[in-house]
Amino acid sequence: MNWLQLDGKIAVVTGAAGGIGQALARAFADQGARVVLLDRDAVALDALAGELGNGAFGMACDIARTEDIAAAAARVEAEGGADVLVNNAAILRPGPLESVAEADWSAMLRINLTGYLMMSQAFGKAMLARGQGALVHIASIAGTQPQPASGAYSASKAATLMMSRQLSQEWGPRGVRSNCVSPGLVRTPLSEAFYTDPETKARREAMVPLHRIATPEDMADVALFLASPRASYVTGQDIVVDGGLSQSLMGLVPRPGYSA
After folding, report:
1. Helix 102-109 and helix 153-171, axial crossing angle in degrees, nearest 10
2. Residue 6: which residues within 8 A CB-CB, separation 6 or more?
3. What is the DSSP string of 50-108?
4. Which of 18, 19, 135, 200 is 20 to 30 Å from 215 by CA-CA measure?
5. Keyword Methyltransferase, does the record have it (predicted)?
6. 10-185+217-240: which CATH number, 2.60.120.10, 3.40.50.720, 3.40.50.1240, 3.10.450.50?
7. Looking at the annotation, which residues are catalytic?
8. Cα(255)–Cα(260) distance, rounded to whole angstroms?
């Protein structure tokens, strides 16, 4: 029995060639869903689609380009329409706010926020017509905990959290749910440089109450639940998946006789 009841569902995953994206794609495929892979890296998508099977296919798609989104939505609509959309694609252009370039600020908002809305509109159309569907947006604890020297990243993720809540209110009466997953520290190919140095890795692990760095699969497991009928009464929520890191502030305050 497929406990998550995703057999035969069409799940669209953006940023599918990345670390979390690939974990999401594999997780949905393992649960019987037909996965649509969207990313700018078409070569990586072809390889992943071949691995997943079950009718999975990839399309080159830059979510900063409305024409790419429209083409992908039309293809998926021809296949029966999306049941699940996971907005995962994102970029980071680091830098302090005092000197962040307008072009970098705008690019991050265009992909990390506006792209999520454009995708939700395009793929939510079929969901709204059927009166059921699920949106899952990959946000970040940086949306509630300001992350220094990261340009528009924290601002974009904070706005994503509110966008999801607004969608949950507007689309909930029409049967479509919207939720966020907010990762903390996750070890992916893009963040691998932070973990090749044993001292840095150990210091990061020590900050997390569970004393380990998350894997992409940790994020995928939560996204699966939120996308599934098992979460049919969950909407407008932000599920923080950070091993307790964002709850650790008061634990950093020195107290005589106490050691974490």
Report:
1. 30
2. 28, 31, 32, 33, 84, 224, 227, 228
3. HHH-TT-EEEE--TT-HHHHHHHHHHHHHTT--SEEEE-------B-TTT--HHHHHHH
4. 135
5. no
6. 3.40.50.720
7. 153
8. 10
Residue ranges of E strands in the chain: 10-14, 34-39, 57-60, 84-87, 133-138, 176-183, 238-241
| Angstrom distance (rounded) from CA 99 to CA 195 | 28
Report field, pTM of the whole predicted structure over 0.85: yes
Residues 6+ apart with CB under 8 A from 192: none
Confidence class of residue 32 from pLDDT cuts 50, 70 and 90?
very high
Q: Where are the domains of the chain?
A: 10-185+217-240
Spacing of C-alpha 37 from chain mean position: 13
AA identity, residue 85: L
Share of the chain above pLDDT 90, in %: 92
Look up residue 162 and give its DSSP letter. Answer: H
Cβ-based burial of 71 (10 A; exposed 0-12, middle 13-18, buried ≥19): middle
- DSSP secondary structure letter of residue 113: I
| 131-167 exposure pattern, b = at least 16 Cβ within 10 A, e = fewer | eebbbbbbbbbbbebebeebbbbbbbbbbbbebbbeb
Length of the chain: 260
